[in-house]
């Protein structure tokens, strides 16, 4: 990671980059408009390509290991995969046991994929930017999870699954009933005229609370991951910018960059873990009856 | 922070990977792990059974050893008894035999003594006759006095 500092310093001299343009450059997506439409009709090719390649590699690896796996004494490769799968398995089992055959693989997918995407933060951005520049690609963001589209895609998929499982577990009627009668409950409707006011009041309070919950869940789910990875990326960029101040700056940039990278290993793993756990917890909560 | 089509594309990719994991990764691996768990459980149960049978076998062998020891003791006692009996019998037999030999020897001796006495008597008679004939010098006819000599010899 130290190499790109000097690299960048050279690049900085050539194009007379300011810190703002340097960071702005590293934070701009490789965009592709669908049907000449702007705005919403844009694809971030970098996010998609990186995440698809990573997913293909990691899940292909898992499937390949599983294909050659044995029920007898496992090899090192199989043992490694089994440790990962067992870890996820234990976490999911600890939380709930319904819909297990779907939720456990879902949790594994989320954990492994998010971990791989987060880990892209460790790649030296400037060297990759240089390499891609040579083949004519000027904008490329390596970390899919620092694209809010990717994290929202995951979080909203989980959100829809959550609603699906809530309806599956409680029925559509039960689901709608819960929207108005949980979490506070409502008094019984009686001849007492006060209850005529109290019941709609309680129902609207419940509904409001439920709506806040349903909106905040995907928001916090996705933005937590996005924020962590985005901040990590920016801190890397700021540290690499130290290199533009000269050799001493390059040295300290490398030193701090290494320190941040080591600390970032924790964040990468932790955020993947948190994302997986929240996925499982949300779906587990959807199964609960109130 | 611009939300765009990437979100939907990413969600589709996500769904594809979930399907892939749920289809090709999770079930086969879980099957294998469960198989191994079963194998291990079976192995442990077998070990338990082996332990138990070992215990049984050792207790059985202890019993057999005890029985064998008791039997050996019995056999030893019987042998001892028989040996004593044999020795006793041998003693009795030997004693009888000895007695018999002694008495036979004694008889032999007596007979020997008697015959020697007889011979001696005869010789003394002859000596007496020879002495007497010498004394009487042909006065006595040996044939005529044979009965007298015999009488003498018998008396000696």
TrEMBL record, chain A:
Protein's UniProt name: ATP synthase subunit a
UniProt record, GO biological process: proton motive force-driven plasma membrane ATP synthesis
Residue spans crossing the bilayer: 48-66, 102-129, 150-169, 230-256, 262-285
Organism in which the protein naturally occurs: Stenotrophobium rhamnosiphilum
Taxonomic lineage: Bacteria, Pseudomonadati, Pseudomonadota, Gammaproteobacteria, Nevskiales
Keyword GTP-binding in annotation: no
Protein's gene: atpB
Compartments, as annotated in UniProt: Cell membrane; Membrane
The organism's place on the tree of life at top rank: Bacteria
Protein family (similarity comment): Belongs to the ATPase A chain family.
A molecular function GO annotation: hydrolase activity
PANTHER family on file: ATP SYNTHASE SUBUNIT A, CHLOROPLASTIC
From TrEMBL, chain B:
Principal location listed in the UniProt entry: membrane
Any one annotated GO CC term: plasma membrane
Domain of life: Bacteria
SUPFAM superfamilies in UniProt: F1F0 ATP synthase subunit B, membrane domain
Assembly behavior: F-type ATPases have 2 components, F(1) - the catalytic core - and F(0) - the membrane proton channel. F(1) has five subunits: alpha(3), beta(3), gamma(1), delta(1), epsilon(1). F(0) has three main subunits: a(1), b(2) and c(10-14). The alpha and beta chains form an alternating ring which encloses part of the gamma chain. F(1) is attached to F(0) by a central stalk formed by the gamma and epsilon chains, while a peripheral stalk is formed by the delta and b chains.
Protein family: Belongs to the ATPase B chain family.
Keyword Cell membrane carried by entry: yes
Keyword Repeat among UniProt keywords: no
Membrane disposition: Single-pass membrane protein
Places the protein is found: Cell membrane; Endomembrane system
The entry's keywords: ATP synthesis, Cell membrane, CF(0), Hydrogen ion transport, Ion transport, Membrane, Transmembrane, Transmembrane helix, Transport
Matches recorded under InterPro entries: ATP_synth_B-like_membr_sf, ATP_synth_b/b'su_bac/chlpt, ATP_synth_F0_bsu_bac, ATP_synthase_B_chain
Regions that span the bilayer: 6-26
GO MF term set: proton-transporting ATP synthase activity, rotational mechanism; proton-transporting ATPase activity, rotational mechanism
Name of this protein: ATP synthase subunit b
Annotated function: F(1)F(0) ATP synthase produces ATP from ADP in the presence of a proton or sodium gradient. F-type ATPases consist of two structural domains, F(1) containing the extramembraneous catalytic core and F(0) containing the membrane proton channel, linked together by a central stalk and a peripheral stalk. During catalysis, ATP synthesis in the catalytic domain of F(1) is coupled via a rotary mechanism of the central stalk subunits to proton translocation. Component of the F(0) channel, it forms part of the peripheral stalk, linking F(1) to F(0). The b'-subunit is a diverged and duplicated form of b found in plants and photosynthetic bacteria.
């Amino acid at each position: 990671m130290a190499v790109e500092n000097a690299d960048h310093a050279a690049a900085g001299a050539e194009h007379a980059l300011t810190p703002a343009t340097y960071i702005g450059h590293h934070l701009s997506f490789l965009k592709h408009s669908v049907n000449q439409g702007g705005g919403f009709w844009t694809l971030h090719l970098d996010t998609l390509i990186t995440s698809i390649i990573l997913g293909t590699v990691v899940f292909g690896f898992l499937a390949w290991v599983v294909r050659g796996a044995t029920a007898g004494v496992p090899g090192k490769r199989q043992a490694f995969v089994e440790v990962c799968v067992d870890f996820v398995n234990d976490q999911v089992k600890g939380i709930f046991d319904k819909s297990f055959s779907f939720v456990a693989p879902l949790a594994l997918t989320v954990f492994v994929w998010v971990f791989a995407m987060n880990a892209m933060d460790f790649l030296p951005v400037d060297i990759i930017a240089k390499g891609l520049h040579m083949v004519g690609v000027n904008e490329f963001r390596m970390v899919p999870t620092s694209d809010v589209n990717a994290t929202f895609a995951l979080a909203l998929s989980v959100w829809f699954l959550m609603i699906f499982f809530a309806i599956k577990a409680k029925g559509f009627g039960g689901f709608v009933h819960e929207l108005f009668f949980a979490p506070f409950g409502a008094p019984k409707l009686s001849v007492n005229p006060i209850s005529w006011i109290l019941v709609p009041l309680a129902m609207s309070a419940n509904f409001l609370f439920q709506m806040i919950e349903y909106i905040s869940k995907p928001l916090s789910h996705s933005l937590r991951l996005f924020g962590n990875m985005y901040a990590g990326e920016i801190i890397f960029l700021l540290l690499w910018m130290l290199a533009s101040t000269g050799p001493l700056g390059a040295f300290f940039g490398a030193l701090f960059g290494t320190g941040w990278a080591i600390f970032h290993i924790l964040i990468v793993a932790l955020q993947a873990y948190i994302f997986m756990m929240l996925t499982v917890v949300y779906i587990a909560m959807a199964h609960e009856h109130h | 922070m611009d939300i765009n089509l990437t979100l939907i594309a990413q969600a589709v990719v996500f769904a594809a990977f979930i399907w892939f994991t749920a289809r090709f990764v999770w079930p086969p691996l879980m099957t294998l792990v469960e198989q191994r768990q079963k194998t291990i459980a079976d192995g442990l149960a077998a070990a338990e059974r082996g332990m138990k049978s070992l215990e049984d076998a050792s207790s059985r062998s202890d019993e057999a050893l005890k029985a064998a020891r008791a039997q050996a003791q019995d056999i030893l006692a019987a042998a001892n008894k028989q040996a004593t009996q044999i020795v006793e019998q041998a003693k009795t037999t030997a004693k009888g035999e000895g007695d018999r030999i002694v008495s036979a020897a004694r008889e032999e001796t007596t007979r020997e003594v008697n015959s020697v006495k007889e011979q001696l008597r005869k010789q003394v008679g002859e000596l007496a006759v020879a002495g007497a004939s010498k004394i009487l010098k042909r006065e006595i006819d040996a044939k005529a006095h044979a009965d007298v000599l015999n009488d003498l010899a018998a008396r000696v």
